Amino acid sequence: MNRCIAVLSVLISLFVSGLGLASAQDASPTANPAFADYPELTITITNDAFEVSSTDIPSGYLAMTVINQSDTESSAALLGPDEGETMDDLMQAASTPEAGDSVPAFLYNAVILGGPQDILPGESATVLINVPAGDWATFGDGSQPPTFLTASETDESVSDAPDSDEQVEMADFEFNGLDGDVTGSGLWEITNTGEQPHMLVLTGVPEGTTEQQVLDAIMSEEGSSPVAEALNPEDLSFVSEGVLLLSSDQTMYLPVALDSGTYVAICFVTDPDTGQLHAMEGMTQVFQVSGSSPDSTPQS
Predict the structure, then answer these.
(1) How far is 186 from 164, CA to CA, in rounded Å?
(2) Band of pLDDT at residue 290, cut at 50, 70 and 90
(3) Is 298 helix (H, G, I), strand (E, B) or coil?
């Protein structure tokens, strides 16, 4: 679980490290048929850079394919300045040094459009994000500097959202839409209805696991005294599907292919008012998945 928290502690360095643009590459066709009618942005993560298919992208819904060619598990998302601010303002805010593993303060005011989480080296993932016209930057959980992009309305812009199989809300501080038997195969519509940014981490757990057991395991990982009935952290089986970060009032679409079983949704973002992880404030939910189709392939 420390790896999820570590994602947040390195975000400042991504913006402080420089303004250089990465080189462009040809976009590859998206592997998910649900996104076939949408323009695509390809982000290739190397050990040193985010290489993008274009720094000029159409506004509207965009299929973002992230290819991990680095040596470590990695992620990527798009981030931009809040309304009334500029990318220079965001860079200035990001340059303020902060200590600890909590979410950097500037991310609470930035607009984060979301992105896939935890892509293994040599693999890729595609999600659908909604990109307003304006200036944006790539970021992730490594030390690569951001690549800067500009979104404009063009003939390629698409404003129609796809149909989804499940609708999941991330609120302050709970998950909504994961009650009952959840469809594990298809497209999840993920919306942040809260005021703070949220992330969606999914992990398989043994049948019968309770949310309190998961919380006790998190506290054990954080250095608190072990609880006798706590879930063994080794029993947590993190899956590749997830959301790196998503800001308030933003929606993204996440392809999933989860096997039947018991899972838990967790948010590891820190609440600046309390200093606690959102997981400790209610954003830990155990749910059941009914299964996935063998043809469903969110990662390639």
Answers:
(1) 7
(2) confident
(3) coil
Phi then psi for residue 181, to 5 deg, are -95, 110
Which residues touch 78 (CB under 8 Å, ≥6 apart)? 64, 112, 113, 114, 115, 129, 131, 136, 137, 138, 139, 149
Query: pTM here?
Result: 0.82
Domain at 166-289, CATH homologous superfamily? Cupredoxins -  blue copper proteins (2.60.40.420)
Strands (E), 84-232: 111-114, 124-131, 134-140, 148-152, 166-171, 174-176, 181-182, 185-192, 198-205
Domain with CATH 2.60.40.420 in the chain: 2-152, 166-289
> What tens digit of pLDDT does each residue of 66-123 get?
999 999 988 999 999 988 889 998 888 887 756 555 667 788 889 999 999 888 999 9
Residues 158, 110: Cα–Cα separation, whole Å: 24
- Specify the range with the lowest mean pLDDT, choosing from 37-41, 108-112, 237-241, 289-293: 289-293
Q: What is the CATH number of domain 2-152?
A: 2.60.40.420
* Coil/strand/helix, residue 247: coil
Judged against a pLDDT cut of 60, whether residue 13 lies above it is answered with no
Question: Using one digit for the tens of pLDDT, what is the confidence trace for 188-232?
Answer: 999 999 999 999 999 889 888 989 888 888 777 555 555 556 676
Please give the span between the terminal C-alpha atoms of the chain, in angstroms, as a whole number: 25
Tell me the helices (H) and strands (E) count for the chain, helix number first.
4, 18
Q: Are 141 and 5 in contact (CB under 8 A)?
A: no
Specify burial of residue 170 (Cβ count, 10 A radius: 0-12, 13-18, 19+): buried
